[in-house]
Amino acid sequence: MQRLYVARDRIEAQLLADLLERHRIRAEIFGDYLAGAAGELPANIWPTVWVLDDADLARAGTLLAQFLADAARPPGEAWVCPGCGERLDGSFELCWRCGRPRE
Q1: Residues of each domain in the chain carrying CATH 3.30.70.790
Q2: What InterPro entries does the record tag this protein with (predicted)?
Q3: 30 strand-pairing partners
Q4: How does 58-75 read in b/e, with b if 16+ C-beta sit within 10 Å?
């Protein structure tokens, strides 16, 4: 088991763990509830994402790099779904109404 990433919060840690699981990389989050003890514990208590199988670490690192790049990318321009005509904010990659991907 290897530590992959120290997240800013529980949500970021869970999003990354879910991404890894979707790519069949088993991951575990440790320390995700420690923020509730703020003031009683040291200030550097952040949730950490661990990869359970060491053989998956390199692939997980590649996914982490993409995850961080996607998070840092500013949302694009608004777009209109070619399937149903719904107008969507630039942060959406799929149409919320019909599920069609952005082209």
Answers
A1: 2-72
A2: DUF2007
A3: 48
A4: eebeebbeebeeeeeeee
* Residue written as token pair 């969507």: 88
Tell me the pLDDT tens digit for each residue of 1-51. 999 999 999 999 999 999 999 999 999 999 887 766 666 766 667 899 999
d(CA 92, CA 6): 26
pTM above 0.85, yes or no: no
Neighbour count for residue 28 (Cβ, 10 Å): 13
Beta bridge mates, 6: 48
Query: Are 9 and 35 a contacting pair, CB within 8 Å?
Result: yes
- The DSSP call for residue 46 is -
Lateral strand order in the sheet of 2-6: 2-6, 48-51, 27-30
So what CATH class is 2-72? alpha beta
- Specify the pLDDT at position 96: 92
